[in-house]
Design brief:
165 residues; alpha+beta; 3-stranded antiparallel beta sheet; TadE-like_dom
């Protein structure tokens, strides 16, 4: 039977080569990697996107904290609102966050010693900035922080130092 098999191999070299190629796995890893590379790149970009979102949330929380603290140092509600807005803008600029729309809501009712000032910051960010791919669309992030007004701070009705009284 081996002689018959050799005769068939000599008469059909193409069939024998094809049989050998089917068993040969050289290059299959490269082909699989070429097919999986786009998926791996998309997965990597998704991880970068998630990291950037988490980073912006943390930085926005810090911005709300800074704005609330600045508002508690003001003497009246209008100054508190102005101070919170200016501090939030400056903190976002130094953090490297580029807001398309920035809204700072300050709740400074009864700005007296021992009361609480709450600042909420809304920041709309372009998704193209987050993914570094120029993806269209925006996302609005929100963060809020409450800060107590110092119990021992001075008031406007106290006499000035050196008054003689």
């Amino acid at each position: 039977m081996t002689a018959v098999r050799q005769l068939q191999t000599l008469t059909c070299p193409v069939r024998a080569r094809m049989r050998g190629l089917r068993r040969d796995e050289r290059g299959s890893a490269a082909a699989e990697l070429a097919l999986l590379t786009p998926l791996l790149i998309l997965l990597l970009l998704f991880v970068v996107f998630c990291g950037r979102v988490a980073d912006i949330k943390l930085r926005l929380y810090d911005v709300a904290h800074q704005a609330a603290r600045a508002a508690t140092l003001a003497r009246n509600s209008s100054q508190a609102t102005t101070s919170a807005q200016a501090t939030a803008s400056a903190a976002l600029a130094s953090a490297g966050i580029n807001c398309q729309l920035l809204t700072v809501v300050t709740d400074a009712r009864g700005l007296t010693s021992g009361s609480t000032v709450t600042v909420t910051v809304f920041c709309t960010v372009s998704l193209g900035d987050l993914t570094m791919l120029g993806v269209p669309g925006t996302r609005t992030f929100q963060s809020s922080f409450s800060s107590p007004v110092d119990v021992y701070r001075g008031t406007a009705t106290l006499t000035q130092a050196g008054d003689g009284r």
